[in-house]
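Consider the tokenized backbone below.
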């Protein structure tokens, strides 16, 4: 899953209005952000397999530190605990920790059975990436729904708050939609740098939120 994680982060702003969108992006995409770094240094591994699945032609055969359920429970406690220690906001800490952990469950919807419970397995996955229609319905629905929740919870304070948001939304959607139905994987090095580029979305989200404010209840 890709934009679905961002959709969940957008939507979480309504539950934790005092948390920056950038921080929410960091939490909900924590597993993939960590995975990109671990790929770069050769600790975790992935390989392209032409024709593997229409929604994603990659074999995620080695990513226990970033994506196993037990590891993400630990990372969730760490991220949520650090936020609570710094901000003393229990609700926000729960939302952020839950965001880290949600990554496993959302990935398990889309992946074939390669998402580890423990570092050495067993492995789960419903494999919805086998169907482009199911991928669009589930992941696209999460993305659109999350954005709708974010828009219902915030409004732009200035032009930056509007155009910075509406520049990011189609950029993420475009990158995701371009990969749908692609049976030929890109080179591993290109995939690694593409994954690392997602770190740029974290400060982008912070920048957006700096120029938006909570909507007043009516």
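A designed sequence for it:
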């Amino acid at each position: 899953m890709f934009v679905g994680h961002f959709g969940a982060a957008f939507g979480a702003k309504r539950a934790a209005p005092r948390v920056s969108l950038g921080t929410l992006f960091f939490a909900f995409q924590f597993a993939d952000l960590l995975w990109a770094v671990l790929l770069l240094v050769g600790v975790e591994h992935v390989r392209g397999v032409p024709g593997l699945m229409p929604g994603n032609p990659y074999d995620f055969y080695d990513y226990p530190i970033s994506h196993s359920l037990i590891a993400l429970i630990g990372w969730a406690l760490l991220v949520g605990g650090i936020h609570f220690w710094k901000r003393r906001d229990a609700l926000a800490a729960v939302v952020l920790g839950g965001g880290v952990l949600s990554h496993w469950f959302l990935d398990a919807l889309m992946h074939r059975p390669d998402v580890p419970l423990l570092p050495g397995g067993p492995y789960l996955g419903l494999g919805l990436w086998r169907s482009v229609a199911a991928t669009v319905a589930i992941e696209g629905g999460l993305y659109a729904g999350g954005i709708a929740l974010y828009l219902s919870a915030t409004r732009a304070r200035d032009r930056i708050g509007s155009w910075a948001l509406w520049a990011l939304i189609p950029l993420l959607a475009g990158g995701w939609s371009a990969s749908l139905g692609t049976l030929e994987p890109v080179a591993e090095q290109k995939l690694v740098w593409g994954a690392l580029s997602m770190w740029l979305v974290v400060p982008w989200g912070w920048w957006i939120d700096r120029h938006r404010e909570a909507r007043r209840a009516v």
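The longest helix spans residues 132-153.
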